[in-house]
Design brief:
InterPro entries: Znf_C2H2_sf (IPR036236), Znf_C2H2_type (IPR013087). The protein has helices at about 25-35, 65-75; strands at about 10, 20-25, 45, 50-55, 60-65. By secondary structure, the chain is an alpha+beta fold. Strands 3-4-5 form a three-stranded antiparallel beta sheet. A two-stranded antiparallel sheet has the order 1-2. Bound molecules: zinc ion (ZN) (2 copies).
């Protein structure tokens, strides 16, 4: 019962897949959790152009490619 500290440090706020934030114990677990999400589901088409909307709760940014969105998502998992 002594390892309950810092449970709030690593949180997945990927909306759509789970409505409530998921708490992970370590950064590694969070990253392994994140890659199970379907990043392709973030794709949107606007006027023929594809953009990738960040699925993070409270983040309204979007990127022009899936690579850039992956890079952007790292900001949320640090
Ligand atoms: Zn998640
Ligand atoms: Zn974001």
């Amino acid at each position: 019962m002594s390892e309950s500290a810092n449970l709030t440090s690593f949180i997945c706020k990927w909306l759509g897949t789970h409505s409530d934030p998921q708490h992970l114990e370590t950064e590694e677990k969070l990253r392994n959790h994140i890659i199970q999400h379907d990043i392709n589901s973030c794709k949107r088409s606007i006027s023929g152009d594809s953009i990738y909307i960040c699925p993070w709760k409270g983040c309204n940014k979007y990127q022009s490619s899936i690579i850039k969105l992956e890079e952007h998502l790292r900001q949320h998992t640090q």
